[in-house]
Amino acid sequence: MRLVVVSNRVSAPNREGKAGVGGLAVALRAALRERGGVWFGWSGRVSEAPAELPHIVQRGRVGYAVVDITPLDRDEYYLGFANRALWPNMHYRLGLTQFSRAEFAGYMRVNRRFAAALAAIIEPDDLIWVHDYHLIPFAAELRRLGIQNRIGYFHHIPWPPIDVFGALPGAGDLLTALAAYDLVGVHTERDAGNLARSFAEPVGGMPVPAAPRIIALPIGIDTAAFRAAAQHADANSVVQRMISGLGDRPLVIGVDRLDYSKGIVERLEAFERFLVANPDRRGNVTLLQIAPPSRSEVPEYEQVGRQTDETLGRINSSLGDTGWMPIRFVKRSYTRPVLAGLFRNAAVGLVTPMRDGMNLVAKEYVAAQRPDDPGVLVLSRFAGAAEQMREALIVNPFDKFEVAEAIGTALAMPKDERIARWRVLYEGLCRHDIGWWTQSFLDALTASAPLAALPRFS
Ligand code: ADP
Ligand code: G6P
């Protein structure tokens, strides 16, 4: 059966082998590389009169089928409803949620257009797998066109409790749309519970349809490939330059899209707190924060960019010295080998989102470590990854004192304990890698067996 993957962001490999930044693009590339298939979605381009049929490019075993959108589509669908309403709501940020009826209509319209474009190229046996919050109504639109294939959906961001989700105008319509899928996947048991409960009570007076089948299936990474990249990275000149610039100082690393959900400002403040509480560490440790800009035309993202710059400037100027800057902040993206090499040389991985569907950086950091001298992962309890990665130092990112203490604990952790924790985490990453995730979802989508009989991660 041919696999057809559908997502807003499609990441065709470029010549430097740079993956798109963002967990979904990185993960779907790994999944399709193993299995082959078609990847359909937005080209990333905006044009006044987009062609109605997709532009198809074959690269190895993957056919990329992409369509452009109009400037209005981009404003209403991508920058609007998807990223100013759904994204903040689903990351529990009611105060940041901006809803407009025109944007909601634009979101539905683009889903309809995308569905019509895909309908023109699918075959009766295709297995269709739709990804993420941009495309919740996609299956309902395909069904309207008479498409009867099996269609699965995976939600890569959190699913909040009904008191939060129910506040989103359009929530009832989204649940109705979701019911058109044969299977809906989320990363955690918590999200699965919240989603199932959303179907159990009426939202905004609207009757709610019967829930689709829901599965909690935590996404993995290509553990073997990332580890191999890390093993070869010491020879990489970018990694070497970066590491030699640190001297003997231990490195603490953070890598995230510049997004308010990632808690970057809060993380910088926690690191400041750590330095204030431990004056002997001043001059002796560096935080490298890599944060490429993301969705910068969305005002809330522009604002977090400004806050980050201000916080960074304040901390570096108040605590830095002529020969030492506490925080190095880099806004560009790197190839996977370079990232793997930087992770491998970092004594601490700081992954402290305020809320996150999964967080693949936490997994990549662990996969990159040296087995005989691994670093320590400090992980937010509000990342989906915390449900699996219990041997990390789990913290509350809203408490900068606690995060500061965890940084100290991580830097001082004896080697035996580091090795013991790392082994358990790494074994989990090998068992539940991207191949396991893809296969488990597709098995569940094709099976008619009750979900209780299907593989679970614990
Ligand atoms: P999100 O999907 O919300 O961005 P994840 O942590 O799940 O968060 O996934 C982010 C992905 O993007 C990871 O695979 C990470 O390695 C990659 N990434 C993040 N920042 C960079 C960067 N500066 N350069 C290259 N890849 C990056
Ligand atoms: C998260 C979302 C993805 C999205 C990515 C990058 O991982 O879950 O759907 O692709 O962020 O964001 P962007 O808006 O650039 O696609």
From TrEMBL:
Taxonomy, superkingdom: Bacteria
Matches recorded under SUPFAM superfamilies: UDP-Glycosyltransferase/glycogen phosphorylase
Recorded GO MF terms: alpha,alpha-trehalose-phosphate synthase (UDP-forming) activity
Gene3D superfamilies: Glycogen Phosphorylase B (3.40.50.2000)
GO biological process, one term: trehalose biosynthetic process
Pfam families cross-referenced by the UniProt entry: Glyco_transf_20
Signal peptide: none
Family note: Belongs to the glycosyltransferase 20 family.
Protein name in the entry: Alpha,alpha-trehalose-phosphate synthase (UDP-forming)
